[in-house]
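Continuing the series of single-chain predictions for the mutant panel. This is the parent chain; the variants come on the following pages.
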Amino acid sequence: MYYAGLQAKIKEANPLAKFVPCSAHSLNLVGTNAVDCCTQAVLFFNLLQNVYTFFTASTHRWKVLNASVKGLSETRWSARDDACQSLNKNWSLIINALNLINNDDTEKTLTRNEASGILNKLNNLETAFLSIFWGQILHRFNLTSKKLQAVNIDFRVVCELYKSLITYIIDLRSDKNYEYFKQCAIEKSKIKQFQSCTKRLKIRKQFFDEGPSKETTVEYSDFKVKTYFVILDQLRSQLEKRNEKYENLLKNYNFFFKLTEMTSIKVRKNAEILQNEYKDDLSTLFANECVHFRSHLLSIGDEAPKTIQDMCGVLRKNDLIGMYPYIDVSLRMLLCTPASNCSTERSFSCLKRVKTYLRSCISAERLSDLAIMNIEFDVTAKIEFDDIINEFATLQSRRKI
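Parent structure:
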């Protein structure tokens, strides 16, 4: 898909251009793929939406519920977390409301059948298990996604967050954690057996010199193998695949984060690798410049900058760009590579609040100015407009007749 599309055209114009997937959107795609990886997961999220649709379709049902339920969204992945949290929080209230509606003779037959169907799906161990399991998974993914949407995030933080989720998923993939979720689900639903749990009779072959054969009953469940492990394996696979992309983008810049910990020889070798990749932008003096910058950071001691942004700040604050011009160029190259484009997309979303039907004839220049004021609301809110209004009124004032 990358051989004739936009990426190919950009690569043709500039071979050094790199494709950077949005880290927050990539994390959402990880969750989407995990949800679609097995039947039980698909059925669970369909049930979440059915519960929301059922109670929000009638004010009477909502009044009977006397609690809040959330629905899913195709564009906001955080809505799935909200839906799971609301289901877990109001589990008993939802079941009680469904029982009341199901046993109410004044309700329509169709409504009672819908309530009965949802109630049957809720009253099984699989649903209780998945509500607890997905509730914890989605909560961690949602908070991580919000962190990935920060404006000042860099690739090092992105890799750290993805690795933390990978380790978290690996820790969950164990029999002890499975039993923990199962026990919580049993306490929540008061049901002790999965519907997919069956019994199998094992008959041992009887020899001629033995007595009557004994049949042994073995209870097994394929829920752990076909649902629990499948979801976790899919999450881990997708996380590792996407994290590898970010690590490849960062690998040539990694030595900047360890300048004070590496020897001058290692710093020089890593700097030469980066310089060979961007020969037109970085001089052959770049490696020697990095060795000097390492010594400069060591002389600062504990106050030495730890992040790329802090390093750029030190160069500008102390007027050191003239001493380390190519380090400044390389640091800005990394900083200008976006790790997330969520803030940019929000800029386009705010246009519907700027260009209303009352401003249908607005010019492009004024629309752009209003959009900037809306996007940079944090700065705009701090501006004192009284002097500006008075000056404008003075300039535009007309003589009184």
